[in-house]
Amino acid sequence: MVIRDIREMQLTAERIRQSGKRIAVVPTMGYLHEGHLSLIRIAKMKGDVVITTLFVNPTQFGPHEDYERYPRDFERDLALASAAGTTHLFAPEASQMYPTGYSTYIDVGGITEVLEGKSRPGHFRGVATVVAKLFNLTKPHVAVFGQKDAQQVAVIRRMIKDLNFNIELVVGPIVREADGLAMSSRNTYLTPQQRKEAVVLFQSLKLAEARVKEGVQECRKIIDEMASLIKANSSGVIDYISIADNTSLQELRHLQPGQSVLISLAVKFGSTRLIDNLIILV
Q1: Is-catalytic flag, 33?
Q2: Cα separation, 252 vs 262, whole angstroms
Q3: Are the beta carbons of 50 and 98 closer than 8 angstroms?
Q4: For residue range 196-206, what is the model confidence (pLDDT) as tens digits?
C-alpha cells in the first residue's frame, strides 16, 4: 500500500495499533539499495507491519549540497521495498511535511556539534526534526536505522530518550560491496575511477583496526596512517578522520583497554562526499 497523505498515514497507523499489531518503521530517503533492504528485512522480523518511509528531506541538506540531484526512482523503490517485506510505503510531499509557515525544529545538543555536525551545520537539526515527524505519523513500536550513519543513530537514540518516545531503536549492520565499499545511494555519483579508488575508505578503517589490535594507543598515530593510505591510493580529499568514544562521540587522544570506540571518516571524491565507520572494542 502506498500512502502519500500525512493524515491518511496517521489514521492507518492508529488502526493498525488498535488491531493489536506491532509496527516497525524504516525511514529512508529512497533510491534503495541492499543496505536499505537489509533494514526492511530486520523490520519484518521485529514487527507485524513494516512501514518504509521514502522522503528526501530538504531540511537536512545544506545550501550547497545535493538535494536537487539526489537520486530518485519511485517505481523502482516501490518494487524493491515490497519484495523485501514492506507492507506500507509512506511517501509524502515536502509541501505537506513543511507547509508554508512551518517553524518548529528539534536541536539535539552536544553530539550534533562534532563530526558530521561540524562539517554540515544544521544537518542534524533537519534529521532530528523529520524523524520526530515520521515517528508521529507512523506511530511505530520499533524503528530500524543503519550503522553506516553512526552519528545519526546516536542522535536518534538521544532524541528518543530525551523526548520519551516509546520506541525501540534497532541498528542494522553496514552492508558493503564485495570490495568493502559501504553501500550508499551517493555511490551512483562516482566516476568509474572514483569508484575504484573509494575502496580505500574501508581499507583505512581496517588498517586502524589492525593497529588497535597490535596495541597502538595513540590516536593521532593511527589517524595519520589512515590519512597517508588514503592520499597515497586515491584522489579523495579528506574532510575528517575521527577516533571517538562510541557513546559520547568525543574525540580521544589515547585508547584505553575496554573502550568502545567509533572510528569514522568523510572523504570527497570530486563533488561526492562519502562516509564510513567501524566500531572497535579496544
Answers
A1: no
A2: 10
A3: no
A4: 999 999 999 99
Vertex 143, ends 138 and 148: CA angle to 5°?
A: 130
Task: Compute how many other C-beta atoms are within 10 angstroms of the C-beta atom of residue 213.
Answer: 10
Which of these is catalytic: 33, 36, 64, 123?
Answer: 36
Q: Enter the C-alpha cell of residue 3.
A: 500512502
- CA distances in angstroms from 252 to 52, 152, 165, 234, listed in the order given: 36, 20, 31, 27
* Ordered alpha helix ranges (H), 85-236: 94-97, 116-119, 123-138, 150-162, 192-197, 200-213, 219-233
| Per-residue pLDDT tens over the stretch 168-205 | 999 999 999 999 999 999 999 999 999 999 999 999 99
Q: Per the structure block, which three cell numbers stand in for 209?
A: 583496526
Neighbours of 152 (CB within 10 A): 22
Q: Are 62 and 120 in contact (CB under 8 A)?
A: yes
Residue 188, all three cell numbers: 551512483
Q: Element (H or E) spanning 275, and its range?
A: strand 272-281
The pTM for the full model equals 0.94
CB contact at 8 A, 265 and 190: no
CB under 8 Å to 129, separation ≥6 — which residues?
59, 104, 105, 106
Tracing cell 509541501 back to the chain, one arrives at 95
Alpha-carbon torsion (46, 51, 57, 59), positive or negative: negative
What does the alpha-carbon distance between residue 90 and residue 54 come to, in Å, rounded to a whole number?
A: 6
| Sign of the C-alpha dihedral computed for residues 271, 58, 265 and 142 taken in this order | negative
